[in-house]
Input
Amino acid sequence: SREVHNAGLRAVVESLLFTGPAADEFRRAPCTRAGHHSYVGGLIEHTVAVATLVTETCTLHPRLNSDLLMAAALIHDIGKTGEFTYGAEIGLSERGRTLGHLQIGAELITEASSGLDRDERDALLSCVMCHHGTDALRLRHFPSPEAIALYRLNALDAQVKTALEHGIH
Output
């Protein structure tokens, strides 16, 4: 969260990742059940990779809102903290099955972002809600350059990691 200089956005990140109820699950959760980073701790590894890519992207494209993009990258998969069950194998929780991590994440972010003004909260949520692309949301266009960047950087890490772990199919 040191890379997020905007105090309001930093507070949201710190609440979700370090002090709030999802913080412990964030450190333990996998990123997927059978795809990329599908092991305990995989979520944090993926998050760090995407955040690292954000740092480089913002250097190349300094007009991007780096605080918004970094905050969104750090919390883009926070909904996965409520998506899984743990046992002999990783399963889906009831909320994970019925809502999925985008909706769970939107709820967590909304709860943690009461200190943001509406425009900041909307910008953050729009990036997170579009990190799998806009088709899932039936949007024709991405809402911001930061949302495009998060979508592409998330996909880059996920696809490269999948190819390295499971081969190219």
Summary: The first strand starts at residue 84 and ends at 85.
